[in-house]
Specification:
Blueprint (H helix, E strand, L loop, with lengths): L3 E6 L4 H17 L4 E8 H7 L8 E6 L13 H11 L1 H10 L6 E5 L4 H9 L3 E5 L3 H8 L1 H5 L15 E2 L8 E2 L6 H4 L2 H12 L6 E4 L7 H10 L4 E3 L25 H6 L6 E5 L8 H14 L2 E5 L4 H7 L5 E4 L4 H5 L4 E6 L3 H10 L3 E3 L6 H11 L3 E3 L10 H12 L4 H21 L4 H13 L2
Parallel strand pairs: 1-2, 1-4, 2-3, 4-5, 5-8, 8-9, 10-11, 10-13, 11-12, 13-14, 14-15
Antiparallel strand pairs: 6-7
């Protein structure tokens, strides 16, 4: 059987690179003997992920960084986004020119709209991969319908609660549930995003990192809109790693064995806290969160990234553990962990769904806002821990919320836990034999292997 050559191009950000790599690993697991994946990353990102374990059929190829240091992109998102849109296309085409065998398909992040034009010029089909929830895609795609609302853009808090109910496949939502970018980013970048989404109609496939059963009506509505296949493949998270490497114990960079600490805790007693790998809350808000966790009396594992040392100094005692990093999916699946205090990044949300944990939603920006609405109101697997207007959430409020959330006798928590377990089983069925995601993977592989 002929080799299927896949060229994968993620947007250069952790929340985009991880699901693209997981997607490629899942594809290779189905056709390991006749698939070759060329995974294109910038030089800086190769330094960060180049040593990670991957199948032999996936190879890295680098292109130059878009900015001198990509890891400071949060300091100037406008410039970084503009650079990604204008500086990667030419070196990416150079990668295609140097391939020993021509690409059979380009799998490109939807945030790289120029990839569709590259495929069209070279007669290579393009699969656009959207790494956020389908709900967020639909909000961007139907911006014209949202803009018809006389109260858009919302003024906080006066018009934030105005309802939008005219988006195909979406349940009614408030203007405050829109991605924060709708309200706060400059018009140039916003227009770029809308152009990017509209460009998807020129691709040959649309891939979603979601589970059909989680967002069925909006996926059906979009499938009816586009003339090509729309495949939901989620959750595109590293669940395939859970059955391996059990002999080794992952540790943080300073060699703290957090899994050993979790082993010593009672079942479902620990609250896991992490606000992701990119965006941050203010130092003042982090201080309030740390103090609130500490005074709640609840056991916790807190991931504080570069703030780990200062957070450790601010909270003393034996209730919790503070680390700069952890193997998140292993932690979420640990029997001692009973809940997740999260920023509602999509990858983190999917991992929590896979683990069957209830959530405390503390969105920071972008799609995290509508995700928190899905979590708390549509799926009913979590509570919101933050208001829409971004005011500082005080330690007393956090402490009280955490105590209620982790109280096993609390009726509200019991309902969350039951619903989270139901959705976990939905997720497991989707990726199991004959499940919706499994069938879509096979259909997509059949399409690109023709």
């Amino acid at each position: 059987m002929a080799i299927c050559n896949v060229v994968a191009m993620p947007y250069p950000g952790r929340g985009h690179i991880n699901p693209m790599m997981n997607l490629c690993k899942l594809l290779s697991s189905r056709r390991n003997d006749n698939i070759l994946v060329t995974f294109v990353v910038t030089e800086e990102w190769l330094g960060l992920i180049g040593s990670e374990t991957k199948p032999d059929c996936i190879r890295f190829v680098t292109i130059p960084n878009v900015l001198p240091s990509e890891l400071v992109r949060a300091d100037d998102m406008d410039s970084f986004f503009e650079a990604v849109l204008t500086k990667i296309e030419e070196p990416f085409e150079g990668v295609l020119d140097r391939l020993e065998e021509p690409a059979d398909v380009i799998v490109a992040d939807t945030f790289l709209p120029w990839a569709v034009g590259v495929g069209r010029r070279r007669n290579i089909p393009v699969a656009s991969f959207w790494v956020m929830p389908v709900t967020a895609f639909s909000m961007f795609y139907h911006f014209d319908l949202i803009a018809q609302n006389p109260h858009f853009p919302a003024e906080f808090p006066e018009r934030a609660e105005v309802t939008v109910d005219n988006i195909p496949g979406l349940s009614p939502f408030r203007l405050s549930d829109l991605p924060s970018i709708f309200h706060f980013l400059n018009q140039k970048i916003l227009q770029r995003l809308f152009d990017m989404i509209s460009n998807v109609s020129q691709a040959q496939y649309l891939l979603f990192n979601s589970i059909f059963e989680l967002e069925p009506s909006v996926i059906d509505a979009l499938q009816a809109t586009f003339p090509f296949p729309v495949y939901s493949l989620g959750p595109v998270i590293p669940y395939f790693n859970l059955q391996y490497h059990n002999s080794s114990r992952p540790t943080t960079p300073n060699e703290v064995d957090y899994l050993e600490w979790l082993d010593s805790q009672p079942q479902s007693s620990v609250l896991y806290f992490s606000l992701g790998s990119f965006l941050s809350v203010s130092s003042a808000q982090m201080d309030e969160i740390a103090a609130g966790l500490h005074s709640s009396g609840v056991k916790y594992l807190l991931v504080a990234r570069d703030k780990a040392s200062s957070v450790k100094e601010s909270i003393c005692g034996g209730l919790g553990m503070v680390v700069p990093w952890c193997d998140q999916l292993k932690v979420l699946c640990h029997p001692s962990v009973g809940g997740f205090f999260t920023h509602c990044g999509w990858n983190s949300t999917l991992e929590s769904i896979f683990a069957g944990l209830p959530l405390l939603a503390f969105p920071i920006a972008m799609d995290q806002v509508p995700i928190s609405k899905l979590v708390a109101e549509d799926w009913k697997i979590g509570w919101k821990a933050k208001g829409a207007n971004g005011d500082l959430v005080r330690r007393e409020e956090i402490a009280e919320l955490v105590r209620k959330f982790m109280d096993t006798e609390n009726v509200g928590r019991k309902e969350l836990v039951e619903r989270a377990r139901e959705i976990r089983e939905t997720c497991r069925r989707a990726i199991g034999k004959g499940g919706s995601s499994e069938r879509n993977f096979e259909a997509f592989m059949k399409d690109i292997s023709k």
